[in-house]
Every structure is written in C-alpha cells, then in structure tokens.
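Hi support team,

I'm filing this because I wasn't sure whether my run with zinc ion finished correctly. The job status page said complete, but I'd like someone to confirm that the output block is well-formed before I use it downstream. Pasting the exact inputs I used:
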Amino acid sequence: MKPNDSNYHGQKANKAYFSVSQYKDFMKCEAMAMAKIRGEYKQPMTRALLVGSFVDAYFEGTLKQFMDEHPEIFTKKEALRAEFKKANEIIARVKRDELFMKFMSGEKQKILTAEMFGVKWKIKIDSYCEGVCIADLKVVRNFKSIPFWRYDIQGAVYQEITRINTGTRLPFYLAAATKEKVTDFDIFQIPQDTLDFALSEVSGNIERYAAVKSGEVEPAPCGECDYCKSIKSAGIRSYNELGGI
Ligand SMILES: [Zn+2]
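And here is everything the job wrote out:
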C-alpha cells in the first residue's frame, strides 16, 4: 500500500510504515505503541491538540471540512470555543507577516515515503518548498515548550526522507506561533549538527523498534503511561516507596 491523503493516518499505513509520531510512541512506551498499531488504544484527542490541526487545516485550505468533521470545536450555541477563537487570532496574526507566510507558501501536506535504516517510513510535510526548504507549522504554548516535543527528530527524519527521494538535503524550519495572550511567532531553523545527532539516535533505536513491531521481540511496557495503567493489575507495594515526608 502507498499512503495518500485519505489513508495516511489509517491502521494499514501505520502497520506498513514508521512515522515520526510512531517512532516517538516507541520511545515513550513500546507496549503503548504496539496497542496503537493493533488499533486497541487511541490517545484521547484533547482540544489543545485540535488547535494545531485547526491551524494546519486553515493553511491547507481544508478548514471548512475540518469544522464539519469536528463539531466538538463549537459550543452548544454553535459559537467557536475559546481555544479556536484564539487559533483564528493566531492565523490572522501570522498572515500579516511576510516572512512567516513565505515559509508557509510551499506545497501543503506533501506525503513522501522511503526506506531508511531498513524500514519503510512515511512523512507528511506542512510546507514543502522544492529545492529550498522544509517547514513545519507549530502552534505551541510558548517558545520554551518547543524542545520538549523533540522536533529535532521530526526534522532529521523529514530531511533524510526528502533527501532519499530527491537527492537534495534541505534545511528544516519550524514556523512557530504561540498561544500566549499576545501571540509570539518566529521561524526556528534546527541546526544541521542537531539534525545529524537526532538522525543517529533514530538509527540506533530503530532496529529494536522494528523487531518489536514485526513481533520478533516482546514490547516492553513502561509501567507508567495511561495505556500501561489501563491494562495493569494491582500489586502489593511498600508504603515507603511513595517517599513522603
Ligand atoms: Zn506504558
């Protein structure tokens, strides 16, 4: 199968291909990643997560469809909920900025696939300027929260999959805008040595994740995530484990 706009996030595509978000799932918890792949576990979609998708949909020109598919973004009186009014404000703000819009002017939601480190990958680029750069739009709480999300891994994989497809290594940028009361926004380039380091980390981990995904190796549960809690059985533990005073 070949991922396209309609099946990109589907179970078949997730079984056949690694994606950056699936790779990050394996980093967090192999048992949870496998439960997602089997279709037994779905991460709850929070309104905070939907805000990013709302802004993505705007730039892709599919906001009307997005609104039809997500009635939860409206109140009972059919007004946009506060988070999405804020999203509209963010869109209006960045639209007034020439540089920001230049980075968002590439081909939207461009899907590419390639084999890398012995496994098949799929990526979806927010804004792909052929021969020039790769940009990903991020709506974040504030700039300080950006490193937490490990966008260096995304940049490294996107850059390498694009290079395998086209022969050209393109710089990777985050077009970031904040949900702060007054929106801040800038274009962050992830330096090449940071991307190189992240890619070497992926190459070191992927063999095990691929072995888990194919069923050769048992997935290790982290024991702490929501999925692990949802399938656990009670145990007897020492009160003193909890630390306390
Ligand atoms: Zn877990």
